[in-house]
Amino acid sequence: MYNEAAYVAKVLEQVKQCGYNCQIIVVDDGSTDATKEELLAVSGITLLQHERNLGKGAAIRTALAKVRGDIVLIQDADLEYDPRDYQQLLQPILEGKADVVYGTRFAGGGAHRVLFFWHMLGNTLLTFFSNMLSDLNLTDMETGYKAFTTKVAKRLVIRENRFGFEPEFTARVARMDLRIYEVGVSYSGRKYAQGKKINWKDGVSALRCIIKYNLFDRL
């Protein structure tokens, strides 16, 4: 979470109602609003805090070090992605079919809010370029919904601090000889006035990361 005071209570309530016995790890990524105070009032979570804003990739690195369960599922704090989709995200792993599951916004799934043509086009092009270099056939590399086993998490090396996590993660798992699945999920995108944070600079960074982690940094 970063400056999500308005969403803290709602997102955590929905996660707690997901129907699974899970460890909820929340990383407050240096929030400057009332997010910290809201989180301190919530029980039943593992709260980790960054002194300053470092970005999504850094927050995920911090959280992965504290994971105790068998499966990791990443939930952004803004509720663009709906925790009611956990069942279809986790099912391929629970059935022993998959090691990694992507929740795609562009292939089936539930309701989708109609927003931002250029964001959609940018996501599609980045996914296409990532697929060319990783030899995967994903429809939504940039999705925020990614689930994977703890065994995969222990093998991951994540260097990116911001949204470059998405293409770096994809490049890493593509070389691990894993069973990768996609399932359709619903999506309720936010406008910038509602707190959306990703921008065109992150798109340029994603392109850099696709090249770097598929061609050069190949741990």
What does this structure look like?
- By secondary structure, this protein is α/β, with parallel strands linked by helices.
- It has one domain (8-216): Alpha-Beta Complex (Spore Coat Polysaccharide Biosynthesis Protein SpsA, Chain A), CATH 3.90.550.10.
- It has 8 helices and 6 strands; from the N terminus they run H-E-H-E-H-E-H-E-H-E-H-H-E-H.
- The protein has helices spanning 8-16, 35-40, 56-64, 86-94, 117-134, 150-155, 165-174, 200-216, and strands spanning 25-29, 46-50, 71-73, 100-104, 146-149, 180-184.
- The strands form 2 sheets. A 4-stranded mixed sheet has the order 3-5-4-6.
- Helix 2 links the parallel strand 1 and strand 2 (46-50).
- Helix 5 packs parallel to helix 8 and helix 7 packs parallel to helix 8.
- The longest helix is centred in the middle third of the chain and has 18 residues, at 117-134.
- The protein is globular.
- 36% of the residues are buried.
- It holds the Pfam family Glycos_transf_2.
- Keywords: Transferase.
- InterPro entries: Glyco_trans_2-like, Glycosyltransferase_2, Nucleotide-diphossugar_trans.
- GO terms for molecular function: transferase activity.
- This is Glycosyl transferase.
What topology emerges from the helices and strands here?
Layout: H1 8-16, E1 25-29, H2 35-40, E2 46-50, H3 56-64, E3 71-73, H4 86-94, E4 100-104, H5 117-134, E5 146-149, H6 150-155, H7 165-174, E6 180-184, H8 200-216
Parallel strand pairs: 1-2, 4-6
Antiparallel strand pairs: 3-5, 4-5
